[in-house]
Design a protein that fits this description.
Elements (H helix, E strand, L loop, with lengths): L20 H8 L3 E5 L2 E4 L1 H20 L3 E2 L5 E3 H7 L1 H4 L5 E4 L5 E4 L4 H7 L11 E10 L14 E11 L2 H22 L4 E4 L10 E7 L5 E5 L6 E3 L20 E4 L6 H8 L7 E8 L2 E8 L6 H8 L4 E3 L2 H8 L16 E4 L8 E7 L2 E6 L1 H4 L4 E3 L18 E15 L1 H6 L3 E2 L5 E2 L2 E8 H11 L1 E2 L2 E2 L10 E5 L5 H16 L4 E4 L5 H11 L3 E5 L1 H4 L3 E6 L5 E5 L3 H15 L2
Parallel strand pairs: 3-7, 15-17, 17-20, 27-28, 27-29
Antiparallel strand pairs: 1-2, 4-6, 5-6, 7-8, 8-24, 9-10, 10-21, 11-12, 11-21, 13-19, 14-15, 14-16, 18-19, 21-24, 22-23, 25-26, 29-30, 30-31
Length: 572
């Protein structure tokens, strides 16, 4: 590759709209350009990085026996209706109608279509099957941001396993987990596996691969001992037990004029937050529902969605709250409520002598015994874990870190195969519904995460495995015939040795070439200039460490090959 022939529109200033480091640097270094919110064009260097990421993923998927497919992005709406996701996913799903009036969707994932293809499987002897693809997905994100980290159009490697039973799914799940760990190691992404919610995908077990990063939108609870990590939407902790004193035989009213918050009740009336019952009103599946937590515990809304089995969940409006309970927030409670569903957090089980709203503005109830006074219809883990709470495995105080999701694997179960009528004949001739797993990696997001992790103050620092080129040869004196000859010779020898090499042959000042080379972030740089070459030397620079070495020009290719081999061995 010759820089003079490539389209690499580098920018000298940081784009005003870029927030995350990856967004800023991928724009400045000429890898991407925005078309509109959430939609990006990949320029030649971006295409090269994307191709190398795909190659790594493809090699590891093929390594576990997966077979590559390519499915349509546009899908008939009826197939999503059969699985129940046409209504459940809501506004994130792009919908359209063709000229004949048929309803269509743009796929944000392909569980339905792969399950539909599995209808042609007929015998247990054909299982397990691992099927995967690289395909464009569409997601109508309400707030696309941070460049390639949150977009509306992206490439995903999605794969699906089909097994006879749960034991087979366990094996398939672990095979994919191992492949993902190898993929992220080869990409230079320090990903950690964390417990996660399955969301609208369905299924029971779900693991996200998270990369710690300040630009991350996800929060992860981690144990410093390294034995526990979970997305905050899923995380739990080992709360110390609380011994409640016996209360009165029945709740008693306490006038609390002006009290609107948990803190007001604690500071003005001596009722600690951990001895209060917080009552939230949510509309779940169209029905007002009371959601109860300990006063000092925040709600993890995804846990409420998981517990109730529907994504149709929203906080009630003020008029809906007053119509349901006859009072305003700050005075709400569930004592004696019999006409509304009640979902309560597990931390309230067995609690007594508690304080909660009386459903009368400015009045609370004390002496509340949860089991005696509140008709809880469903118990669930609803609270959001906070930093410092004990790890559920060893009691070590948990830490909360920001992270970016780079991969997600699910045990889907039989939701999709059952809905679409897939079956195979078992060993005894009986019909068996295959059980599925689903496994995803966002390709462009992986590119952005690599950039988030591997950069410095002056530009990108790509790992060798995914860099747009492995080596760049800087021709620093384009009017010096000896320099041109030496640089071209090194360039040709590197290419002949199978090294992905870029030569900067532009008629530009050395400072411009050095600045662009550092911004673009190619791992190894060979600088050929008149001064060094007069002594028979060229300079080799490591982009990652900044270390420089002057070597005889005749030895440059050997030194570069040795450097690249060491970089690959170290995973850099």
């Amino acid at each position: 590759m010759r820089w003079s022939q490539l389209y690499i529109p580098t920018l000298r200033e940081d784009p005003a709209e870029a927030d995350a480091a990856s967004h800023r640097l991928l724009l400045r270094a000429g890898f991407i350009r925005q078309l509109m919110a959430g939609h990006y064009s990949l320029l030649p260097l971006g295409v090269r990085v994307r191709a190398k990421i795909i190659n790594v993923i493809r090699e590891e998927m093929n390594g576990i026996g997966a077979q590559e497919f390519l499915l349509p992005s546009m899908q008939p709406a009826w197939i999503w209706e059969k699985t129940g996701r046409l209504a459940a996913i809501g506004e994130e799903l792009f919908r359209l109608t063709d000229r004949k009036g048929a309803e269509m969707v743009l796929g944000l994932t392909h569980e339905e279509i792969f399950a539909y293809l599995s209808l042609e499987l007929s015998s247990y002897r054909e299982l397990p099957q691992f099927w995967y693809q690289f395909q464009t997905k569409f997601r109508d994100e309400p707030r696309p941001k941070s460049g390639l980290l949150r977009v509306r159009e992206f490439t995903m490697k999605d794969s699906y396993s089909f097994d006879v039973d749960e034991a087979g799914l366990d094996v398939s799940f672990q095979a994919h987990r191992g492949a993902y760990e190898r993929i992220f190691a080869r990409l230079g992404i320090p990903a950690i596996a964390v417990e996660a919610s399955s969301g609208n995908m369905g299924g029971k077990d779900s693991i996200e691969f998270m990369c710690p990063a300040e630009a991350g939108e996800d929060l992860v609870a981690t144990c410093p001992a390294g034995d526990y990590a979970a997305n905050l939407e899923k995380a739990t902790s080992a709360l110390p037990p609380i011994e409640d004193e016996p209360g009165p035989a029945a709740p008693e009213q306490l006038p609390t004029p002006g009290v609107r918050t948990i803190e007001d009740l604690a500071t003005q009336y001596g009722k600690p937050a951990d001895r209060q019952i917080k009552t939230l009103v949510y509309v779940i599946g169209g029905d007002p529902t009371l959601v109860l937590l300990r006063g000092d515990h925040p709600l993890a809304e995804q846990k409420l969605i998981d517990a109730t089995g529907t994504a149709d969940v929203r906080p009630a409006q003020a008029d809906e709250i007053r119509e349901a309970l006859g009072a305003s927030p700050g005075s709400l409670g569930a004592v004696g409520v019999s006409d509304l569903p009640i979902v309560a957090d597990l931390a309230l089980q067995g609690r007594r002598n508690m304080t909660t709203g009386a459903n009368i503005d400015g009045v609370h109830l004390t002496g509340v015994d949860v089991a005696r006074d509140i008709p809880v219809g469903r118990w669930a883990d609803l609270r959001e874990v906070t930093a410092g709470e004990p790890c559920p495995l060893d009691g070590t105080p948990l830490e909360i870190i920001r992270a970016i999701e780079v991969g997600h694997i699910f045990k889907l179960g039989r939701k999709y195969t059952t809905a679409l009528g897939a079956s195979v004949l078992g060993p005894d001739g009986a019909s068996i519904t295959p059980i599925m797993g689903s496994y995803g990696i966002g390709v462009e997001r992986a590119m952005a995460v690599i950039a988030e992790v591997h950069h410095d103050d002056v530009g990108l620092v790509w790992p060798v495995n995914v860099a747009p080129a492995e080596v760049t040869v800087l021709l620093l004196s384009p009017k010096d015939e000896a320099v041109v000859t030496a640089a071209e010779a090194i360039y040709s020898e590197l290419r002949a040795a199978g090294v992905d090499t870029l030569i900067d042959d532009r008629d530009e000042r050395p400072g411009v070439k050095f600045r662009d080379a550092e911004l673009v972030g190619i791992p190894c740089r060979v600088s050929v200039g008149s001064r060094d070459l007069a002594d028979g030397l060229v300079e080799i620079t490591s982009r990652g460490t900044g270390e420089k070495e002057r070597v005889p020009a005749a030895q440059a290719v050997t030194r570069v090959l040795r450097y690249l081999s060491a970089q690959r061995a170290s995973g850099a």
